[in-house]
Amino acid sequence: MGFVKERNCRFWLCVCRWVVSTVFVVALIGACSTASDAQQSAGSFERWAKAQAIPIQTVEPGGNTADLRRLKSIIGAARIVALGEPAHGAHEPLAIRNRLFRYLVEELGFTAIAIESGLPESRPLYDFVAEGKGELGQALRSSFTCGSPSQEQEELVRWMREYNANAAHARKIRYYAIDVGRCGQGTPLAVENALDYLTRVDAASGERLRAIFRPLLERLAAANAPPLTPAESDRLSAAIEDLLALLERERLAFIAASSETDYQWAHRNAMTARQAQRQYRVRPTEPPDAGFPASAWRASSQRAAAMADNVRWALEREGPTGRVLVFAHNAHIKNALTEGGVWNGFERPPTVMGQHLRAALGAELIIIGMSSAQNGTGLPTATLEADGLDAALARVGQPRFLLDLRAAHTDRGATAWLAERRALRANFTTCLTLAPSAAFNTILFIDTLTPARTVPPPR
Questions:
Q1: CATH class of 188-281
Q2: Number of Cα atoms under 13 Å in the Cβ half of residue 242
Q3: Boundaries of every domain in the chain
Q4: Residue 423 is inside which H or E element, if any?
Q5: Fewer CB within 10 Å, N or C, the chain?
Q6: 60, pLDDT greater than 50
Q7: CA dist 351 to 299, 335, 367, Å?
Q8: pLDDT at 142
Q9: Per CATH, domain 54-186+290-449 is 3.40.50.2000
Q10: What dihedral angle (degrees, nearest 10) is formed by the CA atoms of 355, 361, 362, 368?
Q11: What is the average pLDDT value for the chain, to the nearest integer?
């Protein structure tokens, strides 16, 4: 019996050793297979991208637009093209925005641009573009709220004004801003603008509501003021709703006493005040020294919904034949939650404007993300993630090009690579994480970013 037991033990020991070795080999083969598949997928994407890349001759406006004309088939009948930038404050994204907008207006019939800047502050630029009203430098300084005014921004607005001043252009183009104010933080100016209009068309109602708003707005505008109490916040929300209700109830009378344009701007400012108040109600609760606020995803998601609503307002104002170029950070225009880099500090990924616009517009929206590989002199140094989107596009070997990601459906390897989550450079030193083919329809690659050109201060 002892011999039999010993023989059985030896048998089962051999079986166990065989199972363990087999599992190890299978696992090793699986790991090698996975790595091999990933390498083949990356190789397939880069080969496909090299064959499909549409070279862009320059980012600078003016001159020949032949290299942009292949965009016509990419854009199709879309009413909104959303163009992203990797970071605020770089020259190349702003310059190519200006060049692209000229092409869209002159050859594809686009009628407006809407940028990531405060809507309540933007009326002076709207009026300058539409009527030549005011002085451009002052309008830029008072209206541009996300970053410092740049020469690229000045060039855009000046070209728009010159276009509108040309009598040969029967359809005039318009300038809009879509953020809630102060680069997404909200501002009492939205209420002030609406109250100024109301006082002009209905002095008694304007003064009555101004008395209700005044102590609340003074609190919000004061430096280092404590947050509104829940009761105060409720009063502010109620006052905003009263203001909106009055504007809507007396719409026809107020338009008759002013103009359709002035009424539309007053009503939109009141709507923006509502958006900012909703964002204020879900502001981060962490103490100021807590670092990146984990609960800030709520306010970020609220801001995204507001920006998308303001884009739809601009499109509505442009009428059934209007077409709009929306220009904002990649983090806003993408059709994907915000994840990766510094944004991983959120408790959960916030929704973004691009998701709201995709849900509302479907195929009438084309999203063009922007990628870059390196920072030039004057910008922070940074490294590329080898398996990220920027590094793969840099290996295509062209300094500037467009890539229609939807065309990858004919290549299984490229499709698989684009469907995986990858790093995309953002804000010069951090990154977003997203699946490129879900987030964007098209990618615009610009190898090197350099600083935007600052506007000289007024004398």
A1: mainly alpha
A2: 14
A3: 54-186+290-449, 188-281
A4: strand 422-426
A5: C
A6: yes
A7: 10, 9, 16
A8: 86
A9: no
A10: -60
A11: 90
